[in-house]
Amino acid sequence: SQELEQSPQSLIVQEGKNLTINCTSSKTLYGLYWYKQKYGEGLIFLMMLQKGGEEKSHEKITAKLDEKKQQSSLHITASQPSHAGIYLCGAALGGSQGNLIFGKGTKLSVKP
Amino acid sequence: GAGVSQSPSNKVTEKGKDVELRCDPISGHTALYWYRQSLGQGLEFLIYFQGNSAPDKSGLPSDRFSAERTGGSVSTLTIQRTQQEDSAVYLCASSPWTSGSNEQFFGPGTRLTVL
Q1: In B71-86, which positions are buried (b, 16+ CB within 10 angstroms) versus exposed (e)?
Q2: CA–CA separation, A87 vs B65, rounded Å?
Q3: What pLDDT score was predicted for residue A59?
Q4: A-chain residues within 8 Å CB-CB of B107?
Q5: Between the CA of residue A75 and those of A24, A100, B2, B104, what are the distances in Å?
Q6: Percent of chain A at pLDDT above 70?
Q7: Residue with the larger pLDDT of the pair A106 and B43
Q8: Residue A74's closest CA among A17, A18, A2?
Q9: Distance, in angstroms, between B36 CA and closest chain A CA?
Q10: Cα separation, B34 vs A45, whole angstroms
Q11: pLDDT in tens, A88-110
């Protein structure tokens, strides 16, 4: 079974609308990382969350970590075409270091 | 500053051939990771190197896959006797391995197609 589940798998929103992507872990999280990927490119780091209840924002993107639920959410406010891409959550499930386990990603399309 | 670079960006090969993929990590980063991304499978961990420690090879799918890291810097991922199911984007990442953070910086990937 997938250790990190992302939902939804894909999302199409109208420009200007808000949206939320969720990432749920089946194991204890030692750190939750959000990345964005555009076709043909590598992953771009967005944010890292480590403590339960932690919330970080970068421009119009906010991420929260609910440690008890072993879940993180990524919220985009007033979406723009530049937000389009694949959003991936990654987690260090075996401790604070080492390789990351990734979800399968959420493909976001923003219609102008 | 220079990020993680990978070469080649694209590789097309015939089934049964060997291929080598190269990764140049960010200077000073002690940790280096290889991942594979394929349709339907998402991003899979393959192997990682940290300093002089023995590499963690737990993600390598078969003994046809191997990797080395020379001088604690450049890494080469080798796939022997390639199969069609090896077709994927191979991503390399490096990390400064600072306490409390495992932020990984990714390269653009090598798209491998096995005919």
Answers
A1: eebebebebeebeeeb
A2: 28
A3: 87
A4: 42
A5: 15, 22, 30, 22
A6: 94
A7: A106
A8: A18
A9: 11
A10: 16
A11: 999 877 665 677 889 999 999 99
